[in-house]
Amino acid sequence: MTVKGIAGILLIFCVSGWVSGIKSPEKTLEYCSIFRQIQIDIRDCVITPDSAKIAFQAVMHNFRSVYNRDSCQAIDSSYFVFPVQYYSPRESIGGRGKGYRPNGFDLFDMNVKGSHPAHDIFVRDRNQDNLDDRTWQPIDVLAFTPGIVVATENSWKYDSDLRGGNWIWIYDPCLDMLFFYAHNNLVIVQPGQWVKAGDKIAEMGRSGFNAFKKRSPTHLHLMTLKLNEDASPEPYDTYDWMLNSRIKE
C-alpha cells in the first residue's frame, strides 16, 4: 500500500449536508485524486484487496456527500444516450449483450481472472486505424449518463502491458453508479468536470494490452458498477438501458 494512496484517504471525513450540484470543487478534486490513486495501487498490486475496498468505500462516501440526490430527475429512457455517436445499440453491442459475464468479478484484486462485467461496443474499423470506415473520421465516445469525471488515464503507450489503456471513470450521483470507459485513443475530459449525457468524453481507440492486438476489433469497453449501501461496487447490466437509450446523430 502506498502512503499517497491510502493515508490521505483515512484523513478525509465525509462532508455533512446536501446542496444542489457540487458543494466543494476543491474537495471534489481531492477525492478525484484519491480515487485515481486507489485504481493505480490496485493495478500495481501495492495494496491488499481488503485495504483497497476500505479506501474505495471511504472516498465514495465522500463523493456521495457532496451531491444532492433529492434534486435528481426521473430516470427513464430519455436519461441515457448511447455512448458511441452515430451507432445504434443493436448493430454494435457485442454478442447482443451475451458478452456480459459478472461472476467472479472483484475490482480490488488483480489476480481474479475470467469475468467480464461489461459490454463491448464495436465499430466499423477494418484497418484498425481508429477511424470510422464510412466517414474516415474519429469515432466519438459519449457520456452514457450525466456525472462527475472522477479519474482518467491518457498516457498509455503502444508497448505497455497494462490493460484498459486510456480510460475514464464517471460517477453518476443520481444513479449512485460508476461508469468505466476503456480503450480510448484520446481522452478529452478532466477529473472534477461535470458532463451531461451525450457529451463527448473521448475518441474511440485500441489502447490497452489486449485491445491493441490485431485479433481485437476496435471497441469501447463500458463497465457499470452499482454502489450498495456500504459503497461497495457491484456489477450492473445496462444492456436494456442501452437498447432504449437515445442515439446522438
Kindly describe this structure.
The protein is α+β, with helices and mostly antiparallel strands and 249 residues long. The protein folds into two domains: 69 residues, no CATH class; 167 residues, Glucose Permease (Domain IIA) (Distorted Sandwich). Strands 1, 2, 3, 4, 5, 6, 7, 8 and 9 form a nine-stranded antiparallel sheet that branches. The longest helix is centred in the first third of the chain and has 19 residues. It is globular.
Structure, briefly:
The protein is of the alpha+beta class. It is built from five helices and nine strands.
Mean pLDDT: 90
Largest sheet: 9 strands, antiparallel
Total E-strand runs: 9
The top-level CATH class of the largest domain is Mainly Beta
How many domain regions? Answer: 2
Unreliable stretches: 1-20
* Alpha plus pi helix count: 5
Q: Order of helices and strands, N to C? A: HHHHEEEEEEEEEH
Give the CA-based shape: globular
Helix content: 10-25%
N- and C-termini, Cα separation: 45 Å
Q: Architecture of the largest domain, CATH level 2?
A: Distorted Sandwich
CATH fold category name of the largest domain = Glucose Permease (Domain IIA)
Amount of beta strand: 15-25%
Kindly name the structural category: alpha+beta
User: Can you identify the CATH superfamily of the largest domain?
Assistant: Glucose Permease (Domain IIA)
CA radius of gyration: 17 Å
